[in-house]
UniProtKB/TrEMBL annotation:
Keywords: Chloroplast, Plastid, Transcription, Transcription regulation, Transcription termination, Transit peptide. Residues 496-521 are annotated as: Disordered. Its main location: plastid. Residues 509-521 have a biased composition (Acidic residues). SMART domains: Mterf. Belongs to the mTERF family. It holds the Pfam family mTERF. This is Transcription termination factor MTERF4, chloroplastic. PANTHER family: CGI-12 PROTEIN-RELATED (PTHR13068), TRANSCRIPTION TERMINATION FACTOR MTERF4, CHLOROPLASTIC (PTHR13068:SF109). GO terms for biological process: developmental process; DNA-templated transcription termination; RNA splicing. It is found in: Plastid, Chloroplast.
């Protein structure tokens, strides 16, 4: 019996060729029925097996009996092993991939160490697989002005892709108006911005700032001054700090101007920084509303360390004979006095005034109370003003009395003082003692106040002191012109009035302050 089939067995059922043929093996079966193999079975029947040939990888295996199957199996397996390395579907194992990744990372680390970067903190951070890509990142950071030292201060910046992270962030900042010339310092202070998403992280913060009434043109300056703000949560510290300041009396319409001039407020914690500062100033005798007004005018005072600067400076003021009752006035007049290196300045100015006008410690305390800015005056202006008063004919004792009575004499414009003194001598024809009694005469405008009021008084033929003429508002002066007698109680030296800080505001916003908050006389 002849069987025409690819399987050359009818009974019993077993395969003569090896079953594990490799993939993509071209196998051609060739049937030949010229001879048959007889295999005995249990029922003594005969079974005919057809001879066939199998071509595998261009090698011919011929089988004519069952026994040849075993010998050919080894040859087929050998052929499969020889072809495995050239298979189109072959790929490295997980172990091989892991070893290759470790080798590539070692090369990147070696490159970084070679240029001075310590890669110890980069373990676990996904880095470029080639040194070429890492070199591109380092070169880009160098173009931005960052040094190797800057990168070592925050090596995680090397995990940022140039195209996916750095360029999109920098483009966004540039479109906002942040100057390229500030990028270097910007990234030194807050390199984490390069990890940020423009849509998810940066844009919401910018919109929040605009919602705080910060003008769009001021946004770039705010970011340049305080880049760390881009990392804050909107509903965290930023919102609570503003809410607290508004709660103590800071006008809502002033918030934008305050934050523009001192955006660091948005990063201050209320419980740890702002509230203790406000409460301490209150304990000195400054009303809470007055504190809010001081913050409106000079928001940077919130940055003075309470324990490191403010409290020690208050102690120094007391040590140099400033009376405790005068502390509120001193701080309100010159808030910076609680944030500077004060003790050395106090000691230096006390010695200077003692050498120039023989001023004693107690009188020095009175001078600081009336004009706390005196601690920031340099030696040359003080000496020039003292010499001018001496040249006017005042004795050293009189000069000292005038400085104690009105320390502003040491800081006024000398040319204006000369014109005022000439008018005093020529037109008013008063004795020098009148100036010793009321040295604040020099602080009033010659054309706006002194001349017109003197003419009015002279026309009426009234005899009155300089204080009675000058130390009042225009409205009050008009009332005085109606007096038949002069009220001696109104003849007082001008002094700082704390109530000026707590008076109701006008409708005009005061958010557009000049940048001359720190102008030292």
């Amino acid at each position: 019996m002849t069987i025409v089939s690819y399987a050359g067995i009818t009974r019993p059922s077993f395969l003569l060729a090896h079953p594990e043929l490799p993939v993509l093996v071209y196998c051609k079966l060739q049937l030949n029925s010229t001879s048959a193999l007889r295999i005995p079975s249990n029922d003594m029947k005969r079974t005919e097996v057809t001879r066939f040939r199998c071509y595998v990888a261009e090698r011919t295996f011929e089988s004519t009996s069952v026994g040849s199957t075993l010998s050919n199996t080894g040859n087929v397996r050998l052929g499969r092993k020889q072809r495995s390395s050239s298979s189109l579907y072959s790929r490295p194992s997980l172990l091989e991939m892991k070893n290759e990744k470790i080798a590539n990372r070692a090369k990147v680390y070696e490159f970084l160490r070679g240029i001075g970067i310590v890669p110890d903190e980069l373990d676990g951070l996904e880095l470029p697989v080639t040194t070429e890509v890492m070199r591109e990142r380092v070169d880009f950071l160098h173009k931005l002005g960052l040094t190797i030292e800057d990168i070592n201060n925050y090596p995680l910046v090397l995990g940022c892709s140039v195209k996916k992270n750095m360029i999109p962030v920098l483009d966004y900042l540039g479109k906002l108006g942040v100057r390229k010339s500030t990028f270097t310092e910007f990234l030194r202070r807050y390199p984490q911005v390069l990890h940020a998403s423009v849509v998810v992280d940066l844009d919401p913060v910018v919109k929040y700032l605009q919602g705080m009434d910060i003008k769009p043109n001021d946004i770039p300056r705010v970011l340049e001054r305080y880049p760390e703000i881009l990392g804050f949560k909107l509903e965290g510290t930023m919102s609570t700090s503003v809410a607290y300041l508004v709660g103590i009396g800071l006008a809502r319409r002033e918030v934008g101007g305050v934050l523009t001039r001192y955006p660091e407020i948005l990063g201050m914690r209320v419980g740890r920084v702002i509230k203790p500062f406000v409460e301490y100033l209150e304990s000195l005798g400054i009303p809470r509303l007055a504190v809010a007004r001081l913050i409106e005018k000079r928001p940077h005072i919130l940055g003075f360390g309470l324990e490191e600067q403010v409290k020690p400076n208050v102690g120094s003021l007391l040590e140099f004979n400033v009376r405790k009752s005068s502390l509120p006035s001193v701080v309100a007049q010159y808030p910076e006095i609680i944030g500077i290196e004060l003790k050395e300045k106090l000691l230096g100015q006390q010695c200077l005034l003692h050498s120039v006008i023989d001023l004693g410690p107690e009188d020095f305390g009175r001078v600081v109370e009336k004009m706390p800015q005196v601690v920031s005056l340099s030696r040359l202006p003080i000496v020039k003003h003292v010499d001018f008063l001496k040249d006017c004919g005042f004795s050293l004792q009189q000069v000292r009395a005038m400085v104690v009575g009105c320390p502003q004499l040491l800081a006024l414009n000398l040319d204006i003082m000369k014109h005022s003194f000439d008018y005093f001598q020529v037109e008013m024809e008063r004795p020098l003692d009148d100036l010793v009694t009321f040295p604040a005469f020099f602080t009033y405008g010659l054309e706006s106040t002194i001349k017109p009021r003197h003419k009015r008084v002279a026309k009426k033929g009234m005899k009155c002191s300089l204080s009675w003429i000058l130390n009042c508002s225009d409205e009050k002066f008009e009332q005085r012109m109606e007096y038949d007698t002069i009220d001696m109680e109104e003849m007082e030296m001008p002094s700082f009035d704390m109530n000026t800080l707590t008076e109701p505001r006008s409708e005009d916003s005061a958010s557009d302050y000049d940048d001359s908050d720190d102008e030292h006389i």
